[in-house]
């Protein structure tokens, strides 16, 4: 049974001054596709994807697989990627200016089970802006309280 993941990118910088666009990176047969997400009032951006969550024998932590999931077993993550603005939306292509790595490692099996039983997504928020006010890259910290099951 799939689990829905929602990533809220809080107040990313306006992409135009950086010559960029922001999207969720998805694996496709011949490369990568960038999913643009949804612009929200106030400048935030929402990204949604589905993945499979499972327990490996002898493990108490979930592992994940899916079109938007990257990394090795036990160290999975999602990528929010900044691409050059002249790259057509949804087209396969280069990795772009910077990638924000969104770790899945803090999600518990209890959260997965709760999300499945209620039909609610697991969600997290990350800051969309680097300390210098520019485009962030690398592993980004999850904003408090980290991954949670949507309450509504």
Brief overview:
This protein has 152 residues and is mainly beta. The chain is 7% helix and 45% strand. The chain starts with a strand and ends with a strand.
Structural features, described:
Helix content is 7%, strand content 45%. The chain contains one helix and twelve strands; from the N terminus they run βββββββββαβββ. Strand 4 and strand 5 form a beta hairpin. The radius of gyration is 15 Å and the shape is globular.
Low-confidence stretches: 89-95
Shape: globular
Number of helices: 1
Main β-sheet: number of strands, strand sense, barrel status?
6 strands, mixed
What gyration radius follows from the Cα positions, in whole Å? 15 Å
Overall tally of domains: 1
- Which range best describes the helical content: under 10%, 10-25%, 25-40%, 40-55%, 55-70% or over 70%? under 10%
Q: Mean of residue pLDDT?
A: 88
The class by helix and strand makeup works out as mainly beta
How far is it from the N-terminal to the C-terminal residue, by CA?
Answer: 20 Å
- Amount of beta strand: over 45%
Please write the string of helix (H) and strand (E) elements: EEEEEEEEEHEEE
Keywords:
six-stranded mixed β-sheet; single chain; mainly beta; 152 residues
Secondary structure layout:
Blueprint: E1 2-10, E2 20-28, E3 31-35, E4 38-39, E5 45-55, E6 62-65, E7 70-72, E8 75-84, E9 98-103, H1 109-118, E10 122-127, E11 138-139, E12 148-149
């Amino acid at each position: 049974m799939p689990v829905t993941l929602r990533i809220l990118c809080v107040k990313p910088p306006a992409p135009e001054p950086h010559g960029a666009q922001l999207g969720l990176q998805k694996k496709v047969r011949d490369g990568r596709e960038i999913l643009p997400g949804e612009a929200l009032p106030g400048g935030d951006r929402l990204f949604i994807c589905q993945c499979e969550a499972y327990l490996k024998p002898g493990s108490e932590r979930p592992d994940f697989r899916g079109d938007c999931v990257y990394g090795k077993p036990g160290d999975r993550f999602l990528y929010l990627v900044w691409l050059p603005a002249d790259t057509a939306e949804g087209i396969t292509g280069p990795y772009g200016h910077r990638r924000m790595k969104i770790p899945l490692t803090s999600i518990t099996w209890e959260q997965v089970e709760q999300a499945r039983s209620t039909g609610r997504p697991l969600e997290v928020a990350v800051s969309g802006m680097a300390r210098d006010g520019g485009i962030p890259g690398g592993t980004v910290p999850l904003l408090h309280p980290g991954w949670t099951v949507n309450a509504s």
